């Protein structure tokens, strides 16, 4: 039997994911316990809504990255538990806010929290999670780590606003897109990796290596996520296929397809871009145009380039099983595009 290169890469990636889950399991049990504890409140709706999102699933890659980075450097202080929980709270806060901004109906395969509790509650509970994230950081007494995550929170918000400003903007460039995903997605990966390294006792070179690794991993992750909006199935993605198109998001596949499309193809794309009621037929037409001009495959190629850069960032660190796992894990997230 002939096994495709994509299948081989996917198998390797899945193996890396299992190894990462096993290597971080003991620490992640502490993180998960802290997450559930800090999602509590005497205001009944707060834990109800927060836990609905937190317990909905997901591999918790970002906090796992924090834990893995701390273990990588071998001198973990225990602060990684607070850091990892804070990272997960920041992530979930952005999801709550994003679903309101994007008017999304689904999140992680279930109705978005705003569909059950409303927009106002979703925004306010998101604010609660952010507050708890920073309280957990303050409790460690490490102002430098607090500074990393506080700066990340600011950049993420800027990225979201910039993406909103560029929605349905037919003049958006690949540079604009890169600016958006660096800010709104890759910055939290970067911060998660760096504060983990700090908790593990890394020196400045080690922090820089993990900072670069996190950024490149986050970029690869978002590129693949944007491809899946046109290739994925709703159940696997945890959201509706085509949401990005209907929300008018100028992702790289859209920008590439618009640049190469003939006038008739461009008209088809523009007719569905930013239209909440765009049909599945229209979405299929847009995806066909993207495939015709290799926009999706070229986007995956860029994701692979970022994976190579992520691996290169780790090259100067001492050899260890955790370094190998982190080097391999990036391939899993690119393999989702196949």
UniProtKB/TrEMBL annotation:
Domain of life: Bacteria
GO biological process entries: isoprenoid biosynthetic process
Sorted UniProt keywords: Magnesium, Metal-binding, Transferase
GO MF terms, alphabetically ordered: metal ion binding; prenyltransferase activity
Cofactor(s) listed in the protein's UniProt record: Mg(2+)
Pfam family, one: polyprenyl_synt
Keyword tRNA-binding set for record: no
Family membership noted in the UniProt record: Belongs to the FPP/GGPP synthase family.
Name the record gives this protein: Polyprenyl synthetase family protein
Source taxonomy: Bacteria, Pseudomonadati, Pseudomonadota, Alphaproteobacteria, Hyphomicrobiales
């Amino acid at each position: 039997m002939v096994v495709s290169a994509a299948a081989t890469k996917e198998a390797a990636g899945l193996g890396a994911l299992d190894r990462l889950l096993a290597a971080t399991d003991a620490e992640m049990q502490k993180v998960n316990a802290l997450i559930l504890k800090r999602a509590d409140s005497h205001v009944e709706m707060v834990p109800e809504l927060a836990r609905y999102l937190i317990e909905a699933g997901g591999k918790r890659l970002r906090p796992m990255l924090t834990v893995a980075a701390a273990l990588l450097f071998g001198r973990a202080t225990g602060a990684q538990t607070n850091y990892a929980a804070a990272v997960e709270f920041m992530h979930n806060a952005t999801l709550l806010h994003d679903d309101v901004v994007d008017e999304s109906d689904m999140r992680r395969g279930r109705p978005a929290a705003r569909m059950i509790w409303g927009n106002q509650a979703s925004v306010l509970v998101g604010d609660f999670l952010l507050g708890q994230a920073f309280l957990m950081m303050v409790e460690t007494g490490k102002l430098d780590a607090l500074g990393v995550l506080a700066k990340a929170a600011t950049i993420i918000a800027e990225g979201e606003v910039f993406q909103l400003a560029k929605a349905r903007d037919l003049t958006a460039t690949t540079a604009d897109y890169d600016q958006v995903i660096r800010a709104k997605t890759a910055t939290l990966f970067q911060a998660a990796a760096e504060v983990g390294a700090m908790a593990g006792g890394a020196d400045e070179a080690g922090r820089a290596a993990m900072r670069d690794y996190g950024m490149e991993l986050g970029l690869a992750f978002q590129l693949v996520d944007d491809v899946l909006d046109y290739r994925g199935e709703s159940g696997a993605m945890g959201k509706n296929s085509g949401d990005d198109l209907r929300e008018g998001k100028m992702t790289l596949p859209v920008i590439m397809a618009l640049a190469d499309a003939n006038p008739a193809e461009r008209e088809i794309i523009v007719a569905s871009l930013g239209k909440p009621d765009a049909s599945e037929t229209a979405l299929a037409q847009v995806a066909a145009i993207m495939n015709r001009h290799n926009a999706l495959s070229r986007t995956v190629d860029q994701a692979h380039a970022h994976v190579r850069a992520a691996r290169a960032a780790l090259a100067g660190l001492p050899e260890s099983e955790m370094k190998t796992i982190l080097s391999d894990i990036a391939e899993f997230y690119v393999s989702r595009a196949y």
